[in-house]
Amino acid sequence: MYAKSLHIYEFKCFGKAELVLQYPGRTGPGAAARLPNVNLILGDNGGGKSSILRALAIAILAPVLLESGFVAYRMVRRLRTPPEQPPTDQTQLRQALLKVKGVVDSRELQRLPKPKDELELIARIDMRERGGLDRLHLEHVPTSPIDQEIFDHYSPAFFVAGYGATRRVETGDFSPGSAQKTRGPRYQRVAGLFEDHVALRPMQAWARRLSPSRWKEACSILNQTLPHGVRFDGSEADPDDGQYHYDFRGVKTPFSALSDGYKAFIGWTTDLLGHLCEVAPPELPLREVPGLVLVDEIDLHLHPEWQRSVVPILAAAFPKLQFVMTSHSALVASTVGRENVFVTGEENGGATIKQLDERIYGRSAESLLLSSYFGLSSTRPESFHDEAEELFKRAARGDAKAALDYLDELSAPDEEYPITTPGE
After folding, report:
1. Which helix (H) or strand (E) holds 59?
2. Do 136 and 62 contact (CB within 8 A), yes or no?
């Protein structure tokens, strides 16, 4: 299934929000021509970007989350309380509603009890009177039309994987059995969006179970996502340290010895490949498995050069997966079109999310940072402007040297975007 749209009511920082998403096969007005499987969310810290990813995961996986170790911690929006309101009335019972309209892949239609190409999945979350633990429940929503499939944890149907901003790979002893005892497999795939301490599976935890042909296929896709200078040849894990090794600029390097940027990226992409290998039937190529992948901070630890290509490369490597990603990077943003981008903001004390008509693809980082997508008034340090303003004041009082220094500041370091004088 692909998420066609997401509707949010009273969830986290959002009072009400709606997103109409890009997905493989979408047609009609608003469909993205360049990257049809990519959605990128931009916005300030605390603006609700990560909440969008969590809302999608909860709405789709709600039936299995109820019995998989999921904890709904402060999911319902907390309202500001007027100071004059009596303390006993400050906390009122509230409820969040999440709704996803999904488009079902044609191969899955016949597997549904009542086949139809569009589904509506709903989850409700109650805020408790005290404390931060809310309650996810399905008591007042229609029976999920995918109940039979979603409880088959290794079915390719309704595949969802999610990766939080604190993602890391377990490099010590990893026990798949122990992990599944605390979290159901479908929740395991998205647990990193909700729990900071969740570690991703190392490659050796799933790779040894693959057939030679499937392993070769997984290695090929992995190499398609890697930047120049690092490659994976698929050799057996090293018997001394149990890790798979990469060719990093001609040097055989174990995964744990790679830089944080490589580990952060390779860690979640190999985890994703492992989950795809688990759900894909033998006759279905990994590239053909449809589903939804949620990635917080796609540019995490990545050098600017890598940021310029990471999203298009992932979109091409996994053409049947629908990606919803967040980022703070103007370099990442410039690789997608305005149809792919959502921007969070704030209005009347609540979070908002919308799409802009302003062009974004191919623009320079400086231009984008000063645009509506990022909203900066300047890309220069605040201290630089403070110093320039002080020079301007001294020059206005007749300090000739300050006037020369101020003119020098105006012409350097960036003539394309000069600083503005105070009062302009």
Report:
1. helix 49-65
2. yes
Report the distance separating Cα 65 and Cα 67, nearest Å. Answer: 5
Domain ranges of the chain: 2-227+253-364, 377-424
pLDDT in tens, 82-141: 555 554 444 455 899 999 999 987 666 556 555 567 889 999 999 887 778 899 987 766
Check: CB of residue 128 under 8 Å from CB of residue 134: yes
Q: Which DSSP letter does residue 358 get?
A: S
What is the CATH T-level fold of the domain 2-227+253-364, as seen in this structure?
A: Rossmann fold (3.40.50)
C-alpha angle 208-212-214 in degrees, rounded to nearest 5:
85
Q: Are 124 and 39 in contact (CB under 8 A)?
A: no
Three-state SS annotation for 144-175 = CCCHHHHCCCCCCCCCEEEECCCCCECCCCCC
- Quick check: 37 and 322 in contact, CB under 8 A? yes
Helices (H), 189-259: 212-225
Give yes or no for a contact between 365 and 327, defined as CB atoms under 8 angstroms apart. Answer: no
> Could you give the C-alpha distances from 422 to 173, 383, 384, in angstroms and in order?
60, 14, 13
Beta strands in 183-229, from DSSP E residues, in sequence order: none
CB 291 within 8 A of CB 321: yes
E strands present in 81-234: 95-103, 118-126, 135-137, 160-163, 230-231
Reported pTM: 0.87
Largest CA distance in the chain: 83
Return d(Cα 375, Cα 378) in angstroms, integer.
Answer: 9
